[in-house]
Specification:
- With 233 residues, this protein is an alpha/beta fold.
- The chain has a single domain, classed as HUPs (Rossmann fold, 3-Layer(aba) Sandwich), CATH 3.40.50.
- Helices cover 46% and strands 13% of the residues.
- It contains eight helices and seven strands; from the N terminus they run βαβααβααβαβαββα.
- The model has no long low-confidence stretch (mean pLDDT 91).
- The chain binds zinc ion (ZN).
- The site of zinc ion has 10 residues, from α8.
């Protein structure tokens, strides 16, 4: 039986990954992390998305299994970044934006593997992407491949780290969601997923809720425009 654990944050990318996993695997579980991110909106949206995504296709409901939510507050305690502190989003001298939380994806993958170990799940699915990313070194394909080797050596397992969005830009991520779940999934992603770094949900745009100005909103909006202008809607 094929099975997977999806790193599911409640954002656009991880929701698309969840849909991809529900298409491909017979049993799918999800994991989310509370690392004291500066807003909880993304985490709060998770339950809504899990309920609604199960209704998009008849087979998906039966495949969707347990949701795990881990408290990784210690990551927020040791990180002084714009994701975990109320400071302005800027770029550092090294060119990396201060939204980068050092070690975050490495920690997430390690804890996901520990849960997958206990639950007997082989595939670990994450929305890391090196195409449209903000320069985060832990989103690179090479980083993920190195983690796969390290986890399999360190846990004596054959985990497969799947990153279906690795080579896609944001327009293609929107396109993939349409292929996977039609307009119902695109609408769910627009209305329920949260990407905005500032946690803004007051302003509604055609691409979803957000401040419209932070790097995450701009990337999402730009991808949406590219997707809509090239699709026959
Ligand atoms: Zn924003």
């Amino acid at each position: 039986m094929s099975d997977a654990l999806v790193l599911f944050s409640g954002g656009q990318d991880s929701t698309t990954c969840l849909a991809a996993a529900l298409e491909r695997f017979e049993r799918v579980e999800t994991i989310g992390f509370d690392y004291r991110q500066r807003h909880r909106i993304e985490l709060d949206q998770r339950a809504t998305i899990l309920t609604k995504i199960a209704a998009i296709k008849p087979g998906w409901k039966a495949r969707l299994g347990e949701d795990h939510c881990l408290d990784l507050g210690v990551l927020g305690e040791i990180s002084a970044t714009a994701m975990t502190r109320d400071v302005a989003i800027t770029s550092g001298a090294d060119g990396l934006p201060n939204t980068f939380v050092p070690g975050r994806n490495l920690v997430f993958l390690t804890f996901a593997a520990a849960i997958a170990y206990r639950r007997g799940l082989r595939h670990i699915v994450g929305g890391m992407c090196e195409t449209d990313f903000s320069g985060y070194p832990d989103c690179r394909d090479a980083t993920i491949k190195a983690m796969q080797v390290a986890l399999n050596l360190g846990m004596e397992k054959n985990f497969v780290l799947d990153t279906p969005l690795m080579s896609l830009d944001k327009a293609n991520t929107w396109r993939l969601s349409e292929q996977l779940g039609g307009t119902a999934l695109v609408e769910l992603i627009v209305e329920a997923t949260h990407t905005c770094y500032l946690g803004e949900r007051g302003q509604h745009h055609e691409w979803g809720y957000g401040c419209g100005e932070c790097p995450a909103c701009r990337l999402r909006a730009e991808g949406w425009r590219k997707y809509r202008s090239s699709s026959p809607h």
